[in-house]
Design a protein that fits this description.
This protein is mainly β. The protein has 2 domains: 102 residues, Sandwich (Immunoglobulin-like), CATH 2.60.40.10; 295 residues, YVTN repeat-like/Quinoprotein amine dehydrogenase (Methylamine Dehydrogenase, Chain H, 7 Propeller), CATH 2.130.10. Helices cover 5% and strands 59% of the residues. It is built from 1 helix and 36 strands. The strands form 9 sheets. It has a 5-stranded mixed β-sheet with strand order 2-8-7-4-5, with no helix packed on it. Strand 12 and strand 13 form a beta hairpin.
């Protein structure tokens, strides 16, 4: 009987504990990320989950942790209202010291319910990027009709400096081929330069009678060039052989370009003032697919799947236009009030960085959210995003600075007497 009595007491105690626990226990349904979902640093982890709780939730804390439950990211906090049950946030996974990368990795959701903290985990997969950041190149306009190319190492020390004839137009880079690409006028030439030696590898003179180049954009194996001649030309990245061209559209001039898997999409203007065109070409053949007449001044354009995202100005109004390349029509147009578009860069899918004078502004094309990122003390000339350290590299007229993501403080990398025209980041 004594044994039965103690057993009865244990049952009552366990029942009591179970009842008390159930009052503070929350049911968590993690929607994303998926189990073992792969993320390559740097990346953004979209976190979506549902919480069902009988007791008030004081806070929710979210992070990505290693095997020792050491956070590899900043911890995001959510303080929900009583009627909230579905939550979503973003966790940015930036560069992490190898010593801290101890698998397995878990998205860690800690929920304070009635003073008791409940821990929930979803295992994910993280890997380091295949490439490494090696430094940067600064192109500046020197005196005597010359462009200066300075190559900097990881410590922002110049390891190579050389002059090239001409006036700077545009640049690009192929770190895997160890080549920097430079388009100049007077002389009108597009050239590939070996980053280590500074020597020309190949060059292509502009086509007469309109030799001027407006834009360069790098595809997987091809460097595309928009030419005043009225066509887009493609060169093999390594040897400069011409491997692609569109027909000459004698009355129009291509400017900005974007390339996706199937098409080249470009902004054309008429030689005489008048309407403007968006024209798409088949990427494999160069044949024209379609054209669209419009009245916008196109500042920048990008191609994602079969949608072109265009940043345009009409009068004093800035707009973001989503355009269907396949259907050849405008899907939607979004006004950007009180923003002047000088330049636009795309560092993450559907998130764009707009330069307005001395300001950097982030625009999310999915949500429409706009946020100020940084305000410099001078006009911003160029912006690149350094993926490994999750930093912006920003060129001002006479200095280059590095700004950490979500930070207002910056590090000065270098200053120059000549006017900086562009920067290119070196990855190998």
């Amino acid at each position: 009987m004594k044994v039965n009595f103690y057993m009865l007491m244990l049952v009552v105690l366990l029942s009591s504990c179970s009842k008390e626990s159930s009052n503070t226990q929350a049911v968590v349904n993690i929607i994303s990320p998926q189990l073992f979902e792969l993320y390559t640093i740097p990346d953004t982890v979209e976190v979506d989950f549902e919480v069902i709780s009988k007791s008030p939730i004081n806070y929710i804390r979210i992070s990505i942790d290693n095997i020792n439950l050491v956070p590899l990211t900043n911890q995001a906090y959510i303080y929900p209202n009583d009627d909230e049950s579905v939550f979503n946030t973003e966790i940015f996974l930036s560069n992490v010291d190898d010593k801290a990368l101890l698998p397995p990795y878990n998205m860690h959701i800690a929920i304070d319910v009635g003073g008791d903290v409940q821990h929930n985990f979803r295992e994910i997969t993280i890997k380091k990027p295949d490439k490494s950041y090696e430094g940067f190149i600064a192109f500046s306009q020197g005196s005597n009709n010359s462009v200066q190319m300075d190559v900097y190492d990881l410590n922002s020390e110049i390891i190579k400096s050389q002059l090239y004839p001409g006036y700077f137009i545009v640049s690009d880079i192929s770190g895997e081929n160890n080549l920097a690409y430079l388009a100049t006028s007077s002389p009108n030439i597009t050239s590939a330069i070996n980053i280590d030696s500074g020597n020309y590898v190949w060059g292509n003179m502009g086509q007469l009678p309109y030799p001027l180049v407006f834009d360069l954009i790098k595809g997987s194996n091809t460097l595309y060039q928009s030419s005043e001649m009225g066509r887009i030309i493609g060169f093999n990245l390594k040897n400069g052989l011409q491997v692609f061209n569109t027909k000459v559209l004698s009355d129009t001039i291509p400017h900005n370009m974007a390339v996706n898997e199937n098409f080249i999409f470009a902004d054309f203007t008429l030689r005489n003032p008048g309407n403007k065109l968006w024209i798409s070409f088949y990427r494999t053949t160069g044949q024209k697919y379609s054209q669209f007449v419009h009245e916008y001044d196109t500042k920048a354009l990008f191609a994602q799947n079969d949608t072109a995202i265009l940043f345009c100005v009409q009068g004093n109004q800035s707009n973001v236009i989503n355009f269907s390349i396949i259907d050849n029509n405008i899907i939607k147009s979004t006004s950007l009030d009180n923003i002047a578009i000088d330049q636009v860069y795309s560092f993450r899918d559907n998130v764009f960085t707009i330069v307005d004078g001395n300001k950097i502004i982030s625009y999310n094309n999915t949500s429409g959210n706009i946020s100020n990122v940084f305000e410099a003390n001078d006009t911003i000339i160029d912006v690149k995003y350094e993926e490994i350290s999750s930093s912006y590299v920003i060129a001002l007229p006479h200095e280059i600075i590095m700004l950490k993501t979500n930070s207002s403080t910056f590090k000065r990398l270098t200053t120059k007497n000549t006017r900086i025209e562009s920067i290119e980041l070196i990855y190998k």
